[in-house]
Design brief:
By secondary structure, the chain is mainly β. It contains one helix and 16 strands. It has one helix at 32-51; strands spanning 2-8, 13-19, 24-25, 28-29, 63-67, 79-82, 95-98, 102-110, 115-119, 126-131, 136-141, 147-152, 162-165, 175-184, 191-197, 207-211. The strands form four sheets. It has a six-stranded antiparallel β-sheet with strand order 5-16-7-8-9-6. Strands 10-11-12-15-14-13 form a six-stranded antiparallel beta barrel. A hairpin with a 4-residue loop joins strand 10 and strand 11.
Length: 216
C-alpha cells in the first residue's frame, strides 16, 4: 500500500509515490539520517511542484527500492553500490532518486546481485538542467562543489530557485536542488554560474528508489 500525492492543472500532471516500505522493513525502522534526508528531499519536491507546476516527474514509472552498501572512507562518494541487480530488474540508465522525484544519480553498471550508481556530484557527469520559474537553461557540472554553468548572463535566476533535470536521458523535471549562490563565470560576462544546494547529504544515503524508465 502506498501514499499518492496528486497535483493537477490545465497543462500538467504530477505524481509522487511514497512507499511505506521505505520507512519500515521487516519490522525495523530505518535510521534517522535516511528519514531526515528523505523528508528534506520530499519538501523540496513539493516546493518544485508548486513553483514549476508543468514539470512531469515521470510517466507511469514503477520504483525499485534498493539499500546502499556502506563504504569506508566515506568522503568523495561520487559513486555508490546498491543491493539490487539484473535478477531484480535493474538496468543501466535507471535514475536513482528519493521517492521517484528527487534525482541523486543514475545506474551505470549492473551485475547479477548489485549495481553501481553514479551520483549527481560526480566529476565526470554533466547534464542539462532548467532553473527557476523561467526555466533558464544551464549545465550541471559535478565536482567538489557541484555547480550550474553556461547560464546566459542576460537570463534572470535567483538564490532559492529550483533546479530540475532537463536531459533526454532522464525523465524530465526530476528535482536536483536549489540555487545557493550566483556569480559571473567569465571576465566578459557572457555567462553566469550557480552553486547548488542539495536537500540531502550523499554520505547519509542508506536507501534509493530507482525509476523503471526508458528514453525510447
Amino acid at each position: 500500500m502506498g501514499i499518492f500525492f496528486i497535483f493537477s492543472g490545465a497543462d500538467f500532471r504530477y505524481r509522487l509515490l511514497l512507499s511505506v516500505n521505505r520507512f519500515v522493513r521487516g519490522g525495523d525502522i530505518l535510521d534517522y539520517e535516511t528519514l531526515s534526508a528523505e523528508n528534506a528531499a520530499l519538501k523540496v519536491a513539493l516546493g518544485v511542484a508548486q513553483s514549476t507546476p508543468d514539470a512531469i516527474r515521470y510517466e507511469d514509472g514503477t520504483l525499485i527500492f534498493a539499500d546502499v552498501f556502506a563504504t569506508y572512507p566515506f568522503a568523495g562518494r561520487s559513486a555508490v553500490r546498491v543491493n539490487k541487480g539484473v535478477r531484480d530488474g535493474m538496468r543501466v540508465g535507471y535514475p536513482a532518486t528519493f521517492g521517484g522525484s528527487v534525482l541523486t544519480g543514475q545506474v551505470t553498471e549492473v551485475y547479477n546481485s548489485y549495481s553501481v550508481v553514479r551520483m549527481v556530484g560526480s566529476p565526470d557527469w554533466q547534464i542539462p538542467v532548467r532553473i527557476g520559474p523561467h526555466k533558464v537553461a544551464g549545465l550541471l557540472v559535478g565536482g567538489t562543489v557541484p555547480r550550474i554553468s553556461m547560464i546566459a548572463a542576460d537570463k534572470k535566476i535567483a538564490v532559492g530557485d529550483a533546479i530540475i533535470a532537463a536531459s533526454n536521458d532522464l525523465p524530465y523535471g526530476l528535482t536536483i536542488g536549489t540555487v545557493s549562490s550566483i556569480s559571473a563565470e567569465t571576465a566578459g560576462g557572457v555567462f553566469q554560474e550557480a552553486v547548488i544546494t542539495f536537500s540531502y547529504d550523499a554520505q547519509d544515503i542508506a536507501e534509493l528508489a530507482f525509476i523503471i524508465w526508458t528514453s525510447d
